[in-house]
Amino acid sequence: MVDIIAGAEPQSWSGGPDGVLVLHGFTGTPDSMRHLAQAFADAGYAVELPLLPGHGTSLEDMLTTSWDDWSAVADAAYTALAARCDKVVVAGLSMGGTLATWLATRHPEIAGLVLVNPAVMPQPEMAEILVPMIEAGETSFDAISGDIAKEGQVELAYDRTPLLPLASLGAAIDGLQAQLAGLAVPILLCSSPQDHVVPPATGDHLVASVAGPVERVSLDRSFHVATQDHDAGLIEERSVAFAARCFA
After folding, report:
1. Catalytic annotation on 58?
2. Looking at the domain that runs over 11-247, which CATH code has it been given?
3. Active-site residue, from 140, 209, 224, 229
4. 195 given a catalytic annotation
5. Active site (annotated) includes residue 69
6. Are 74 and 50 in contact (CB under 8 A)?
7. What is the residue extent of each domain of the chain?
């Protein structure tokens, strides 16, 4: 049994009849989404906040995982939650937003998506950087975690970025593009104009790509990990109100 870093534990809340699946980001942990998950739970919903494979333990663990592992756990968590709920909203930060969007393409019955700085736009320049590094035998580079404007706030995440897992995420984002045109689920899109991880243009890309309605919230005081930043309260307030409309 691999030891989980203190604070990175998954969490479940009973409630219902409706539920929310909450998904954390790449190299991150449930800690970054715990307050948002708690806000949904306080509103009376059943909530699942899983720990994705390879996360919350050690970088070495994550090096052996890929999109197939993370998406399988996300799909299983959704299926289990949907089995005990009338309707389900899926919320995700960064790669959690990639997973949430992917789930909605597979499960059109999902009631709504809450996407916080989601990684859903291809970045071909990233592949150009990763391929030669991987071919040279490198396994990681500097951390992409911790992009927070709020003084003293720290993201519980790895201090290095694993290359092969990141390449698998990039390939998944590329593969997702063809499916976006058929995505009709209501979306609450929360985007930081000052995001140093996901290009701020991602929001416009998503709006232009999907078929369904998108409600946008600008996180003007926050960087990438906005759920732990100055606009965390705004995200929680708007997300709970959005879920209530989806479940009505």
Report:
1. no
2. 3.40.50.1820
3. 224
4. yes
5. no
6. yes
7. 11-247
